[in-house]
Amino acid sequence: MIRTVTSLRAALAIGASVAALAAAPATAQDSTQAQTEAEAAENSGDVIVTARRREETLRDVPIAVTAFTGAQLEAAGAIDITDIAATTPNVTLEVSRGTNSTLSAFIRGVGQQDPVGGFEAGVGLYLDDVYLNRPQAAVMDIYDVERVEVLRGPQGTLYGRNTIGGAVKYVTRRLGNDPTIMAKGTYGSYNQIDGVLSGSVPLGDSGFKLGGAVARLTRDGFGQNLTTGLENYDKDIWAGRGTLQFEPSSQAFFRLSGDYTLDRSAPRGGHRLIPGIVSGTPVLADVYDSRGALVTPRQRVEAYGGSFFAELRPADWLTFRSITGYRKDDTATPIDFDALPAVQVDVPSFYNNEQFSQEAQILVNTGGLSLLTGLYYLDAKARTVFDVRLPGGVTALTFGDVKTDTVAIFGDATYDFSRQFSISVGGRYTWDNRKAQVLRQTFLGGGSPFFGGTGTLFATTSDFRGDASFSKFTPRASVSFKPTPDHNIYASYSKGFKGGGFDPRGQSTACRTPAGATCTAAQVYDFLSFDPETVDSYEVGYKASVLNNRLNFALAAFHAAYKDVQVPGSIGTTVNGQQTFIGVTTNAGRARINGLEAEVNATLARDFAGAGSRITLSGTGGYLDAKYTRFIDARGIDVASRRRIQNTPDWTASGTFAASLPVGPGTLGASTTVSYRSASQQFELRTPMLDQPGYSLWDANLTYDLNRNLTFGLHGRNLTDKRYIVSGYNFLSQNPDTGDFNRTAAGAYIPTLGSEGVLTAYYGNPRQVMFSVTARY
């Protein structure tokens, strides 16, 4: 009741703010930014992107890129960065298991599900060209955004290591020359109340501009934790950005920006898919309800950072750039794996990440040559601490501390032999150093001291320090042929590289020689370490705008050879008669990935019911034939034919029908989107009940733009209220070849951690309907 009253007051406050802005005279400026963005988005080939670290139209860049402008995202009612995956071919972006703001990303079958420090992501995430080294706090909310770009395929030359599957670029707005102010209020299902206020102002004629945005994003839970009474799948976020921009002349540009996010949402509890093995506790009827009792540490995610961008153009053909970035995030989260009141597999966790990066670039554009060369440095630290609390007062503590130092030199050049024919070549050489500490301890009678426990230290099962260095050259080459400026046919080759490291959950005492003897120090090093993985990707594509820009399309076909695939995993096992948890990471396999992608945007009618009226039809499609060609399991057997690449559906597709027409003094817009994803697996081995069959989602939007200053929006998401699994945990004994669950003679499941069994799922958002009002001046 208290929260309801508070939320109602917030709604009234937002409404009052918007009403006040609507009543104010539009004397600051005739804001045309939203309309300009929307008009640019009409013809997708004309959208400006920076996929090759320089400004180009989407049609001209010889890379498979999907771009979303801020206007498109606003019209679609996008909530956070995971929403763009529904209409992007061969892309999976999900909230990670048991978290609220940790991102799991896969592009073209390459990614990383496990967010533990020590494992690298396969998809690079960038905020204003600053690489985010860890996935915690990476589920970024959509506000004050200029565009989001999704680059598919390895981007190792210009974006470096860990962009082996691709990259996602979140680009915030640059400040304009005129004062602006924008206020947006949203109210929706589950008492969703969002408020965003942003603005910018030039500081006289000094060349300085100051801008900022603040967002308050709240929502009640989709369900409830029946044990603790807390909301489940709720949202409670404060966020803000600030920018100081200085442009003394057309030859110089400087931008200092910072952002802060505080997420105090309740712990996200999973849904048990099986009854309790011992207690017989039944499966809950509502998949968004949970009943885990773990509430410590208190759920809290704090992330902040800043960047300094400097650009000097001493000549028309020469540009110098510097990009300095710093980021820090701290996550405290209680994850109740078993989702039961009793202690079965309870995991209180801390994630602490910090990074500093510096990049310097030189750009040359003269004659037919466009050249970019640069240096990159990253100093990153990641600490992961968690207990695995089991029945009987047994706790397995995992402490992993990882330090990464990366230095790279890179260059990329494009030469236009003519208006029709150009060649691009590039390369990056990366030196990667990884230092890790892995501490595993067993406590009896209570939790570890990291989480206020009073348990007695029983055994230290890992006390390991490792140091490893890797280096790799990642080249890229492409050929483009443009028979006319509206057509681009290209072929490309690129290599991607993801660094190796040490499993922070590994247990050195589990290492045994083939004869069963205790391992030497060198053998323990090999047991806990894993090598880098690489991808060689070959792609051909065709992008075009035809019929007077009424039809825009991009087609791509690709083949990727994926080598030394890192397969991180965790298992429940018994060591010296004691049930425990062990991380197992190996370079288990090789894979080949073939695929097709298509994106089409057609204007079916224009100005048919007055100036500005329009009907459009757009669609995306992706197909992946992804197979392991070699997969060595723990038994030393090649089981490639019995494994699938995780989080990678064979088919992804979407279709959007949109129309706009003048109504009264404004413009009425309507759109509807249906997206489809075929069946996919959570892990390489089939997991019954946890793997998600194919499904479709239906969204719809209605907007009304009044005199360019005031916009009303009505947005519906997942209108059929589809229930679909996005992630989960499994600690049940399985047949290593078929994935079927092993059973006792009485037909009961066999747990590998705890006694009740863990098969827990997390679900995508249910049906949501929201109404928004946006005022711009």
Mean pLDDT: 90
C-alpha-based Rg, rounded: 26 Å
Ends: how far apart? 37 Å
Q: Decide which structural class fits the backbone.
A: mainly beta
Residue share in β-strands: over 45%
Give a structural overview.
This protein has 777 residues and is mainly beta. It contains four helices and 39 strands. The chain is 6% helix and 55% strand. It has a 22-stranded antiparallel beta barrel. Strands 3-9-10-7-8 form a five-stranded mixed β-sheet. Strand 23 and strand 24 form a beta hairpin. The longest helix is centred in the N-terminal third of the chain and has 22 residues, at 2-23.
Please name the defining characteristics of this protein.
mainly beta; 777 residues; 39 strands; 22-stranded antiparallel β-barrel; globular; five-stranded mixed beta sheet
Summary, kept brief:
The chain is built from four helices and 39 strands.
Lay out the secondary structure.
Blueprint: H1 2-23, H2 33-42, E1 48-49, E2 56-57, E3 64-69, H3 70-75, E4 91-95, E5 103-107, E6 110-112, E7 123-127, E8 130-132, E9 145-152, E10 166-172, E11 180-188, E12 192-202, E13 208-219, E14 223-224, E15 231-232, E16 235-249, E17 252-263, E18 271-272, E19 300-315, E20 318-336, E21 346-366, E22 369-390, E23 394-416, E24 421-444, E25 456-481, E26 487-498, E27 501-502, H4 521-528, E28 529-530, E29 533-546, E30 551-575, E31 578-606, E32 614-631, E33 651-663, E34 666-677, E35 695-706, E36 710-717, E37 725-731, E38 758-763, E39 768-776
Parallel strand pairs: 7-10
Antiparallel strand pairs: 1-2, 3-9, 4-5, 5-6, 7-8, 9-10, 11-12, 11-39, 12-13, 13-16, 14-15, 16-17, 17-19, 18-38, 19-20, 20-21, 21-22, 22-23, 23-24, 24-25, 25-26, 26-29, 27-28, 29-30, 30-31, 31-32, 32-33, 33-34, 34-35, 35-36, 36-39, 37-38
